[in-house]
Each structure stands twice: as C-alpha cells, then as structure tokens.
Design brief:
This protein has 336 residues and is of the alpha/beta class. The chain has helices spanning 36-41, 67-81, 97-107, 130-141, 255-262, 289-294, 305-317, 322-333, and strands at 10-15, 22-24, 30-32, 51-55, 87-91, 114-117, 151-155, 158-161, 166-167, 176-177, 185-188, 191-194, 215-219, 239-244, 267-271, 298-299.
C-alpha cells in the first residue's frame, strides 16, 4: 500500500500465525491458514482507524517461533517505522506473546508503538475474540498517547507493557495480566486511555543482527540436587537462567554445580514466583541469594525466568561479555 487516506494514520500489520489465524484443517482441529490480509479484511471497522498494510512473513503456531524469526520481524519493523508508518501491529499465537513482546521491546528502536496481539479463540469459534483484539490493537498503535512506551500487548481491551505482561490463563480471553505493576490502560469507547507510563529499557545495539546463543532455563524444586546442571556446557549452551524459589533460593545441594557453571558462562538468578524481584542482600544461608551472587551468579531483577533467558541470549548474541554484559543485563532487568 502506498500513500493513504488523508486524515488517517498508516499502520503495518505483521502476521506470524497463531490461533487468530487458525481454521479447521483436514481433521477436527484448527491450524494456521489465514494471512494478515485475511484478518484485516474480516474487520471492516479497521478502515475507520487507519490505512493498514498487511504482511505475512510466517504462518506458524506461537510455540514454533524462534529468536531468528523475531530478529527478522524486528528488522522489518525498524525499516517500516523509520518511514511514515505511525505504528505497527504484530499478530501471533498467545502461547509466546509475552516473549515476543519482550524481544521486540529490546530490538525495535524509536518511539512509535508496536502492539502485539492474538486471540484465545479461533475465528470460527463462538465468541471469537480476534476481531475485537485487532481493532483495539489498531486503535492503540495509531494513538499518539502510546508513543514512547515501547512494545505493548493488547488483548481484551487491556494495554500491557512488554516487560510486565504474562499469560495467566490457558483458556480465558482475559488471559494476560501484569502482576508486577498492573496494565498501562484500556481501550474505551474507541480510544486508547493510558493511565500509567513506563520508561522503556534501552534497545540492544546490534541485537536485531545478532546470532543465536542458546541459553538454558531450569526451575529449582523441592529436593532438587542439581544433577541436570552437570551436562549443560557440553550440550552447547552459552548461558543459564535458574528459576529459584522465593526471592532467589535453591537447595544447598545445587550450589556447587551452579557455582561451577558460573565460572564457565553467565548464570542468571531468577525466581519461579510469578511476581516480584529476586533479592540481593537479605538471606545468608547456603543456597540463599547472597550465597549464589557471591559465587558469580547475576541477579535477574524482576524479569522472571522467561524474559531473563531471552535477554541473556540477546546480549550474548550481540557480542557482550564480562562486565559489559553484566551491566547491560542489570540495566534491562531493573523495573521502571
């Protein structure tokens, strides 16, 4: 699409697949079939909000997306948003929306809104939520009030910041929540109403052109002795995020293995708890946060395991090491 209707902003919609694009396949279950253009054509009210250019680089379920896919999307968005496009919508499966939104927040520069959305119900299901989510996302992506907030997630008329959003239900249309801070706002009467603003983290220089660096994610559990940790380096991993208990605690039996790995590659201490940061200076027993940090682990802040893993992989892929990596991780994991 070139030009546009006078008085209406231009948006780019990037469709990656997901439930919002899924219809019945050869059997009784749904699979990705629709393109971005199909989605736009199915919601006539979008034409009243913006002129939308739809592109469909992939047609994949959310779990099959990779960092390589998302780097490609980030490069596309950086190119489009450098022009006269007012904002962007990324459509994908809800399984990994919180991860995609965080990655794009780290890789897409500028202050124009990038809105990630999807659907919990397929387009042929009763009460399909995809059309309403697309319309709300277009309203937010075109809104001047949404500029400067980085990548956002919009479903169920609720606006979330990428760094806080989490999928909280396997089936409800209201699946996304921002437990650590609450949503930024809502779409009401066709308007994006922003009630809270966040300062976005710095974009990772060279991140969109980085190379894959595999990072393992493991969760500590009652009675865990850490035997799974021994082979991680030999398997080709370049880093580890450990989702510890509570504010950053693991069984004492895991400490030697974690300390040994911290001498080989970066190990981030995160928490398996849904909300809140890991601590850095409160508890002092073997396996406590102070014990682990003294052995070289990096504090994960309030990001949680999923986003800590992505951040560490992106920083490694951009070539950061040692103190430079540690400082960059700290800057991007401290809540704003």
């Amino acid at each position: 699409m070139s030009g546009g209707t006078v008085g209406r902003p231009r948006l780019v919609l990037v469709s990656l697949g997901g439930t919002i694009t899924m219809t019945a396949g050869a059997g009784p279950c749904i699979v990705p079939t629709l393109t971005g253009a199909d989605l736009v054509a199915a919601v006539p009210a979008l034409a009243e909000v913006a002129d939308i250019e739809a592109v469909s680089p992939f047609r994949l379920p959310g779990p099959s997306l990779t960092l390589a896919h998302l780097r490609q999307v980030a490069r596309l968005l950086n190119e489009r948003l450098a022009g006269d496009v007012a904002g962007a919508i990324v459509v994908q499966g809800t399984d990994t929306i919180e991860e995609t939104a965080f990655v794009l927040d780290c890789l897409v520069g500028g202050d124009k809104p990038v809105v990630v959305t999807g659907a919990m119900r397929g387009p042929e299901a009763p009460g399909a939520d995809g059309p309403a989510n697309l319309l709300a996302s277009a309203i937010v992506a075109a809104a001047p009030a949404a500029r400067g907030l980085g990548t956002l997630v919009v479903l169920n008329d609720t606006i979330h910041a990428a760094r806080f959003v989490q999928k909280a239900s396997t089936f409800l249309p209201s699946t996304f929540a921002s437990l650590a801070a609450g949503p930024l706002g809502c779409v009401i009467e066709g308007e994006a109403r922003i009630g809270m603003r966040v300062t976005r983290s710095a974009v990772i220089a060279g991140g969109a052109d980085g190379v894959d660096q595999p990072v393992a994610l493991l969760t500590a559990a009652l009675g865990d002795d850490g035997r799974m940790l021994a082979g991680l380096a030999d398997l080709g991993y370049r880093g580890l995020v450990i989702e510890a208990m509570g504010v950053g605690h693991v069984p004492a039996a895991m400490v030697p293995a974690l300390a040994g790995l911290a001498e080989v590659f970066p190990v981030v201490l995160s928490s398996r708890v849904a909300s809140g940061p890991v601590f850095t200076r409160t508890y002092g027993f073997p396996g406590s946060e102070t014990d682990l940090l003294s052995r070289g682990l990096l504090p994960g802040g309030a990001l949680g395991g999923l986003k800590s893993r992505l951040l560490l992989s992106l920083l490694l892929g951009a070539g950061l090491q040692g103190p430079q990596l540690r400082e960059a991780f700290r800057q991007n994991s401290v809540p704003n």
